[in-house]
Amino acid sequence: MKKLLDLNLKTLCDNECIFCHDSTKKMWGKRWNDYDKADSIREKIKAGARNGFKAICFTGNEVLNHPHIIKLIKYARLHKYTEIEVITSGRKLKDGVFLNKLIREGVSQFYLPIYGADARTHEAVTRVTDSFQDIMKTLDNLCQYRVRVILTTIFTKKNLKNISALTEFIINKHPQMCFKIDSVAAFSNSLLDYKHVTPPFEMAIPFLKKTARIYKKRYCSNLTYLSFFAKSFLHLPPCILYNIFDRDLFNLSILIRHSKFMEGHNSNESFPYESLIKLPFCKFCKFYMICCGISKFYIKVYGRSEFKYLK
Predict the structure, then answer these.
(1) What pLDDT does residue 135 have?
(2) What's the per-residue H, E or C state across the chain?
(3) The predicted structure's pLDDT at residue 147
(4) Chain segment 24-74, per-residue pLDDT in tens
């Protein structure tokens, strides 16, 4: 398992997503521009290499807005990082020349968000006109390269009904790309905002079940089906997966073991664990040690009745 160094470059994003706390800051007029200095980032890259990190992930709202991103990627490659990942809104990659330069300098994997199968749904989440058109162009550009692409979505009240259509779009148009579905963790200090954006799991499960059926219909091979299913639902609590997965505990066990294997990295800062908790009864669950936990905001807004331990 390779150690993954996460580097947050603190750049402004090109989108204004409804669940993002930094987007909320921008709405309040607090547009900030405190990019990490290139010299400071180089020191972190160098220190990571000394400490045995072989994979590196550049992140930070819109990392491709950093003025020195190409040089920093090149610097990481010079320090023997064998995997270089970029988390991005994807809109900058509609520029094929820029994309080619990133790949040529060593980027091996991109994480891109997509929130709907049509412009209306996608842009209801991003709140930016033409962001759907940009991501479609980016996906077409990426198809020209042998680079790993992980598409991610967050299910919210704005796009929940469109999740199955988005799933159909991805497996039909871009079957070579991984797809992950996640829930909102936390994005501001406002419980009212959280409730406005985040659906309860009991509302989401029927739509996620429909998505699972789409995968099962498309991928008849059990292993292939589990592979795509695991990639898609990697970060949901097992007790929620249990309901999505037709209450099949045996196959759920296979799914979770497979998803842990597929994660493939030991990250120093890959998930906002400070916003997640486990309930007292969770310690009795057979999946306790590998469960990512439950959002503190979710518990405050919707309570704990949907969660239970699995024997």
Answers:
(1) 97
(2) CEEEEEEEEEECCCCCCCCCHHHHHHHCCCCCCCCCCHHHHHHHHHHHHHCCCCEEEEEEECHHHCCCHHHHHHHHHHCCCCEEEEECCCHHHHCHHHHHHHHHHCCCEEEEECCCCCHHHHHHHHCCCCHHHHHHHHHHHHCCCCCEEEEEEEECCCCHHHHHHHHHHHHHHCCCCEEEEEECCCCCCCHHHHHHHCCCHHHHHHHHHHHHHHHHHHCCCHHHHHHHHHHHCCCCCHHHHHHHCCCCHHHHHHHHHHHHHHHCEEECCCCCHHHEECCHHHHHCCCHHHCCCEEHHHHHHHCCCCCCCCC
(3) 92
(4) 444 444 444 445 677 888 999 999 999 999 999 998 888 999 889 999 999
Average pLDDT over residues 137-144: 96
- Distance, CA of 264 to CA of 250 (rounded, Å): 23
Provide the whole-model pTM.
0.84
**Alpha carbons 125 and 128: distance in angstroms, whole number:** 8
Could you tell me the two tokens for 287? 């999946």
Judge: domain 2-271, CATH 3.20.20.70: yes
